[in-house]
Recover the amino acids of this structure.
């Protein structure tokens, strides 16, 4: 039981490049989330998925797209990376209340 | 505006000492409040979750309190250990939504 896994762990991009952050959970949770964590700020919700096939915008969705491929997987895509997207990205899943977080992806956009 | 504020921003204590971290919130309608521990380079891990009717909840050396009237919570750490060095994040959720409002955390360092 691996919990929530994220790939890659680290990534460096140039401005304008695209990439997809992968997230998978093996706990059979319906809800999944993508957050970003920046210094001096609380985690901010980018996108949320209540169940397979549904996604909703969070607090900071601009510049991102998501895909809930199936119950296990929830990916985050940056179509044209910008330096403002330099951050640590966390994926989380939850059955109802408590969220379980992945280890994070550290992204640097130059 | 829904907000969660934590204090202090950072704290240094000696191993074996106790400490208390504070969380004030203005989230409405209130659903529950959680405390998470985040080790450096890791994702947050849940310590406790408290609903409106709960005043105190313990998890080993961690004890959380909630005063729903004053909209304040605290996390008390007893007999601190080096492994308690981490950021502690207060998170409040609003009823009927998926929204979780995160505080900026208190960074705790425990020295030998």
């Amino acid at each position: 039981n691996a919990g929530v896994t994220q790939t890659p762990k680290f990534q460096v991009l140039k401005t304008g490049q695209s990439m997809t952050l992968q997230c998978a959970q093996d706990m059979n949770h319906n809800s999944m989330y993508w957050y970003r964590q920046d210094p001096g700020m609380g985690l901010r919700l980018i996108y949320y998925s209540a169940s397979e096939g549904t996604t909703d915008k969070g607090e900071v969705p601009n510049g991102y797209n998501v895909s809930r491929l199936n119950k296990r997987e929830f990916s985050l895509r940056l179509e044209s990376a910008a330096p403002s997207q330099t951050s640590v990205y966390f994926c989380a899943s939850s059955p109802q209340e408590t969220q379980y977080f992945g280890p994070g992806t550290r992204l640097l956009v130059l | 505006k829904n907000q969660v504020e934590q204090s202090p921003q950072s704290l240094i204590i000696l191993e074996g000492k106790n400490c208390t971290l504070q969380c004030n919130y203005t989230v409405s309608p209130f659903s529950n409040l959680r405390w998470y521990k985040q080790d450096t380079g890791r994702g947050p891990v849940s310590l406790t979750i408290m609903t409106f009717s709960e005043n105190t909840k313990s998890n080993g050396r961690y004890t959380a309190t909630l005063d729903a009237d004053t909209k304040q919570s605290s996390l008390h750490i007893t007999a601190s250990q080096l492994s308690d060095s981490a950021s502690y994040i207060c998170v409040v959720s609003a009823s009927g939504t998926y929204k979780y409002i995160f505080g900026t955390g208190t960074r705790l360092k425990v020295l030998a």
Observations:
- Chain B touches chain A at residues 4, 32, 34, 41-46, 49, 89, 93, 98-105 (CB under 8 Å).
- The mean pLDDT of chain B is 93.
- The first strand of chain B starts at residue 4 and ends at 7.
